[in-house]
């Protein structure tokens, strides 16, 4: 259990780092594309474009990539873990969308990251109790994260 807890935590940090790089790249692209400067502040269309692109990047990274690399993002692949349904089968596109885009990204954004802290406390408690590690999004969408060889 402790091994899986560490793997999930490190995979989360790798995925968060990838998203930070993507978001800063997107921010730089939007700032230059819309010629933002002190004389020309970012207009609403630039903000809309930035948010839309970031949502697209998150969808690609957390929904499309795991469909193509079954159950894995870059962080999960490096740490040899993957997402599966509770019955051990591969997730569908809809389940990836629900689990990773809606429950993880949007819920985390809406709660200002509180849900990340809650999930960290929850799986640490489960590890101490020697229970199967199951975060809130795993419970709602009925998925699990397993170690692969």
Task: Throw out a few tags for this protein.
two-stranded antiparallel ribbon; 7% strand; mainly alpha; elongated; 149 residues
Descriptive report:
- The chain has 149 residues and is mainly α.
- It has one domain (2-147).
- It has 6 helices and 2 strands.
- The protein has a two-stranded antiparallel ribbon.
- The longest helix has 32 residues, at 2-33.
- The radius of gyration is 17 Å and the shape is elongated.
- The two termini are 16 Å apart.
- The mean pLDDT is 88.
% residues in beta strands? 5-15%
Cα distance spanning the termini: 16 Å
- Please report the number of helical segments: 6
Total count of strands:
2
Overall radius of gyration: 17 Å
Count of spatially separate domains: 1
Quick gist of this model?
The chain is mostly helical. Helix content is 68%, strand content 7%.
Per-chain topology:
Blueprint: H1 2-33, H2 44-68, H3 74-78, E1 81-85, H4 93-110, H5 114-128, H6 136-141, E2 143-147
């Amino acid at each position: 259990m402790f091994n899986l807890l560490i793997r999930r935590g490190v995979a989360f940090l790798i995925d968060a780092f990838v998203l930070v790089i993507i978001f800063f790249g997107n921010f730089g692209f939007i700032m230059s594309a819309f010629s933002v400067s002190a004389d020309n502040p970012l207009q609403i269309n630039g903000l809309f474009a930035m948010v839309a692109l970031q949502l697209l990047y998150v969808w690609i990274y957390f929904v499309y990539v795991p469909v193509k690399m079954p159950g894995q993002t870059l962080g999960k692949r490096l740490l040899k873990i993957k997402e599966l349904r509770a019955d051990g089968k591969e997730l569908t596109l809809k389940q990836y969308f629900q689990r990773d885009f809606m429950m993880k990204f949007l819920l985390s954004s809406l709660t200002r990251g509180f849900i990340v802290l809650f999930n960290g406390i929850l799986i640490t408690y489960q590890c101490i109790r020697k229970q199967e590690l199951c975060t809130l999004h795993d419970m709602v969408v009925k998925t699990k994260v397993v170690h692969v060889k």
